[in-house]
Specification:
GO cellular component, one term: cytosol
Organism: Anaerostipes butyraticus
Protein name: Thiamine-binding protein domain-containing protein
Oligomer: single chain
Pfam family, one: Thiamine_BP
Largest sheet: 4 strands, antiparallel
Number of helices: 3
Helix content: 25-40%
Order of helices and strands: EHEEHEH
InterPro entries: MTH1187/YkoF-like, Thiamine_BP, UPF0045_domain
Mean pLDDT: 96
Strand content: 25-35%
Length: 98
């Protein structure tokens, strides 16, 4: 695992319920990738290969549009280490959730 990303998907929506429905579809897609992920209150972190993660980030925007959002913004954080491993989600947060 040479990369991790955090994605906050912000689809345009008529109300909070619609916003949550669309974001849930994006999160369901992330879950379907089979990669290790962590859903937080503002963003979802995903671990894996850099190129695969960039494809997932791109697809998240398409998912939100197909779910009915007329537009979508996203905030993305990327950690990439081409030689070696990046810190895992578990190492970063597990001690805080026991």
């Amino acid at each position: 695992m040479n990369a991790s990303v955090a994605i906050q998907s912000l689809p345009e929506a008529a109300n909070d319920e619609e916003l949550i429905r669309i974001v849930d579809e994006v999160i369901d897609y992330i879950k379907s990738t089979g990669l290790n992920y962590y859903v937080g209150p503002f963003e979802t972190a995903i671990e894996g290969d850099y190129d695969e993660l960039m494809d997932i980030v791109k697809e998240c925007q398409h998912i939100a549009i197909r779910a009915g959002a007329p537009s979508v913004a996203a905030y993305i954080k990327v950690t990439y280490k081409p030689e070696g491993e990046v810190l895992t989600i578990d190492k970063k947060v597990t001690k805080h959730h026991q």
